[in-house]
Each structure stands twice: as structure tokens, then as C-alpha cells.
Design a protein that fits this description.
This is PadR family transcriptional regulator. The chain has 7 helices and 3 strands, in the order αβαααββααα. By secondary structure, the protein is mainly alpha-helical. Strands 1-3-2 form a 3-stranded antiparallel β-sheet. The two termini are 24 Å apart.
């Protein structure tokens, strides 16, 4: 989903400021989305959405602080959001990329590394194997989560992509 659709979803739920959106994107849940959280990008996107007629804003005057623009979805914005939400869900490019990354992890080359003279190579190999397996488990969990979303939204992952 595009960044502007996520922001539109938020302002359709309740009027909010760019700062409110920044705070959410900086929260634990917001960071997990992987969406950009830079203030400048949020305000540029809101400006573009206002120019496109998706959102409107009112200025709230605040004593001792800068005035705040409070954004809310317009009828056009709500129409755009409903249309976007009605589209069939397409898996993110991330799913294919994560599956490919998992294959590379499984087929990794276990060549000898040029360790420092004071490092015990067999012990370091064991440590690196643990790191590798931990990352592989994390990737498997992430791929499984993405596949679960596809199933939950009524579109099973294509068989040729499944692990």
C-alpha cells in the first residue's frame, strides 16, 4: 500500500495533525510497518493529498506553540480509500524478496574466513552458525507472517512461490 493511502486511512478514522502521524509512525507498531517516518515526507505527502482533494485541513491556533494543521479526509478522499481497500490484495514485493533471501541463506557457501590470528576458527564458525540459524528462523517467521496475511485477506500465496 502506498504511503499516502496509509495516511489517508488515519485521517479518515479521525482528524489528526502531521505531528500525530509522525508520533504513530515512530511508535513500535508504526516502526514495524517499515513506512517512512520523516516529518518532511509526511508533510509533503499531506500537501499533495490536499492538492488532490483527498484531505482538507483547518488551522488550530495554539498559544506559545506553532499553529497546527488538523487534517481530515474529504468525501473524495473517502471514495479513494474505499476504492483502494476494495482492490484485491497483492502480496508485497517483499514476500518474493524474503523467499529469495531465505534460499540464499539455505545455500550459503561455508568457506573458511580469514580470521584474525588470535581468533579460534572452529569456535567462530560455531558462533556464526548460530547467528545464521537465528536469522534464518527470523526470515521463516516473517515469510510465514506475510503468507498468513495473504490467506487472511482471501488470496492464497501462489503455489510456485510457496516454500
Amino acid at each position: 500500500m502506498k504511503f499516502e493511502h496509509v495516511l489517508l486511512g488515519f485521517v479518515a478514522m479521525r482528524p489528526c495533525t502531521g505531528y500525530d502521524l509522525k508520533r504513530w509512525l515512530g511508535s513500535e507498531l508504526g516502526r514495524m510497518t517499515g513506512l517512512p517516518g520523516q516529518q518532511s515526507q509526511i508533510y509533503r505527502t499531506l500537501s499533495r493529498m490536499a492538492a488532490d482533494g483527498w484531505v482538507a485541513y483547518r488551522v488550530e491556533r495554539t498559544a506559545g506553540r506553532p499553529d497546527a494543521k488538523v487534517y481530515q479526509a474529504t468525501e473524495e478522499g473517502e471514495r479513494v480509500l474505499r476504492a483502494r481497500l476494495a482492490e484485491p490484495y497483492e502480496p508485497p514485493v517483499e514476500l518474493a524478496a524474503r523467499r529469495e533471501q531465505l534460499q540464499r541463506f539455505r545455500a550459503r557457501d561455508r568457506r573458511d574466513e580469514p580470521w584474525l590470528p588470535t581468533v579460534d576458527p572452529p569456535r567462530m564458525a560455531v558462533i556464526l552458525d548460530h547467528v545464521h540459524h537465528g536469522r534464518e528462523r527470523a526470515l521463516l517467521a516473517h515469510v510465514g507472517w506475510l503468507e498468513h496475511i495473504l490467506t487472511d485477506l482471501g488470496r492464497a500465496a501462489p503455489a510456485d512461490e510457496a516454500q
